[in-house]
Specification:
The protein has helices spanning about 25-40, 55-70, 95-105, 115-130, 145-150, 200-210, 225-240, 270-280, 280-290, 305-310, 325-340, 340-355, 365-380, 390, 405, 410-425, 430-445, 450-465, 470-480, 480-495; strands spanning about 10-15, 40-45, 110, 160, 170-175, 175-180, 190, 215-220, 250, 255, 320-325. It has four domains: about 1-80 and about 255-340, Rossmann fold (3-Layer(aba) Sandwich), CATH 3.40.50; about 95-190, Glutamyl-tRNA Synthetase, domain 3 (Alpha-Beta Complex), CATH 3.90.800.10; about 340-390, Orthogonal Bundle (Helicase, Ruva Protein, domain 3), CATH 1.10.8.70; about 405-495, Arc Repressor Mutant, subunit A (Orthogonal Bundle). It is built from 20 helices and eleven strands. It is mostly helical and about 500 residues long. The termini are far apart. The strands form five sheets. A three-stranded antiparallel beta sheet has the order 3-4-7. Strands 1-2 form a two-stranded parallel ribbon.
């Protein structure tokens, strides 16, 4: 599917600052950004914050931080500006009030005085009759006198959009192809609350029109509202608002969670902040989110943002729901961790070591040097950066044996630890290969122990755990004195456990 026209592409990402960002939001931003970059278009970041009861500055900042963390830059929006600023809807209320007045004067909207109780009765009647739930047009044709009488009773109106009398609404969806809704299922809708606060149904198309948005990529859950958008755009065009050209719509597939249910904000996998805290790389999460409904083709699943922008074509977005697979997300993040060079990965691990209390605010040169040397020992095992403190903590402080490790420190292991210490005391060349050779000779060949039986007590003594980075490489990094001291400390614990 090629673009229908040759207009310069202008796409927008327009979240509401309510609660914490979620991964579905992040994927929508990512796809819009990639589409804009692939087509040399403009990526507009707009904040839909007209819901004063739910919006918050903390959530607004969280949105800014999320896009920044992902590496998604925007051409117009907060902090950047642009020809259609401001880009926060709470700062555009005068525009919406003016447009609302024009729509009302032109007959595209009307005042509706129906009370919530009356509407509840109507819905129950519609449900009982098997009809489409929606506003039946009760106030569509009230006269001026009838409206005055309603006001005299103390009723304040909402403003409803008057859907045109049309048999059907059809558009060529950029992802799903031709889509048609019967006109009888698309009923009049509210655009301004009783208190004068404009709703999404008004402000979103007004901003799209006045900002000359050409393509709208949004979630599948908004598919059924597209006829309303189209009708509103036609009304705005009739008033000379915007370019007069309707945007093209594309609806991204659902992201499914456990049990093939749509991933909701309450699902643990949905929390964007959770991935940052867990130690995902931006590159890793971006890469995985891109695969939720799109791929560059073939078997390619590992790519950068720049490569995604180069290869992104809207016709390659799959209309079928995408299932969120945490194992795959972790695997891809692990690939990105191993893709980084040692120095860069070590630098990125620092905040997690600081959070764990292993590093101070300003780690010393010696600590950073040791971390860089230790990083190659763990990068094959890492899935997220938050796992690093448990893997490298023993390099930077005293060993603490976990519960599983203590089961290894027995009377039998005491003898193994003592034999290892005697052997290593005579090792002059303190390198991985020499340490390995000496211990293999003494414990496996001379004592006849199996390697696992021989080296597990040593691993516990050196690292505090049964599972750890490579043992002999770790001992080389720790040095002779520290390694021998830990073997002796573990031997004492092992002997005490036998008493």
């Amino acid at each position: 599917m090629s673009l229908v026209n040759a207009r310069p592409v202008r796409v927008r990402f327009c979240p509401s600052p309510t609660g914490d960002p979620h991964v579905g939001m992040a994927r929508t931003a990512l796809f819009n950004w990639a589409f804009a970059r692939h087509t040399d278009g403009k990526f507009v970041f707009r904040i839909e914050d007209t819901d004063s009861a739910r919006d918050s500055e903390d959530s607004y900042q969280a949105l800014i931080d999320a896009l920044t963390w992902m590496g998604l830059d925007w051409d117009e929006g907060p902090g950047v500006g642009g020809p259609y600023e401001p880009y926060r809807q709470s700062q555009r209320l005068d525009l919406y009030a003016d447009v609302a007045a024009q729509l009302l004067a032109a007959g595209h909207t009307y005042e509706c005085f129906c009370t919530p109780e009356e509407l509840d009765v109507v819905r129950e009647q519609q449900r009982a009759a098997g009809k489409t739930l929606g506003y039946p047009g009760t106030c569509r044709n009230l006269t001026a006198d009838e409206r005055a009488a309603k006001r005299a009773l103390g009723l304040e109106p909402v403003i409803r959009f008057r859907m045109p009398d049309r048999d059907e609404w059809t558009w060529n969806d950029l992802i799903r192809g031709p889509i048609t809704f019967k006109g009888e299922h698309v009923l009049d809708f509210v655009v301004v609350r009783k208190n004068g606060e404009p709703l999404y149904t008004l402000v979103n198309p007004v901003d799209d029109a006045t900002m000359h948005i050409t393509h709208v990529l949004r979630g599948e859950d908004l598919l059924s509202s597209t006829p309303r958008q189209l009708a509103m755009h036609e009304a705005l065009a009739s008033l000379g608002i915007g370019s007069g050209e309707l945007p093209e719509f594309g609806h991204l597939p659902y992201v499914m969670g456990e049990g093939n249910k749509k991933l909701s904000k309450r699902d643990p996998e949905a929390s964007f902040k959770g991935y940052v805290t867990a130690g995902f790389l931006p590159e890793g999460l971006d890469n995985y989110l891109a695969l939720l409904g799109w791929s560059p083709g073939g078997d390619v699943e590992f790519f950068s943002l720049a490569e995604m922008a180069r290869d992104f074509k809207i016709e390659n977005v799959n209309a079928n729901p995408a299932r969120f697979d945490m194992k795959k997300a972790l695997a891809i993040n692990g690939l990105w961790l191993r893709h980084l060079d040692t120095d860069e990965l070590a630098e990125r691990l620092v905040p997690y070591l600081q959070t764990a209390g292993i590093f101070s605010r300003d780690p010393s040169r010696e600590q950073m040097d040791l971390l860089r040397r230790a990083t190659p020992l763990i990068n094959e095992r890492l899935e997220t950066m938050s796992q690093a403190p448990n893997m490298v903590g023993f390099f930077f402080g005293d060993v603490e044996y976990d519960d599983e490790a203590r089961t290894v420190l027995t009377a039998e292991s005491s003898a193994i630890l003592a034999a290892a210490a005697v052997t290593l005391t005579g090792v002059d060349d303190w390198t991985t290969d020499t340490i390995h050779t000496a211990l293999t000779s003494a414990l496996v060949e001379e004592l006849g122990l199996k390697p696992r039986h021989a080296f597990t007590p040593l691993r516990v003594a050196i690292t505090g755990r049964k599972v750890s980075p490579p043992l002999f490489e770790s001992m080389e990094l720790l040095g002779r004195d520290v390694s021998l001291a830990r073997l002796e400390a573990a031997r004492v614990v092992a002997e005490a456990s036998a008493i």
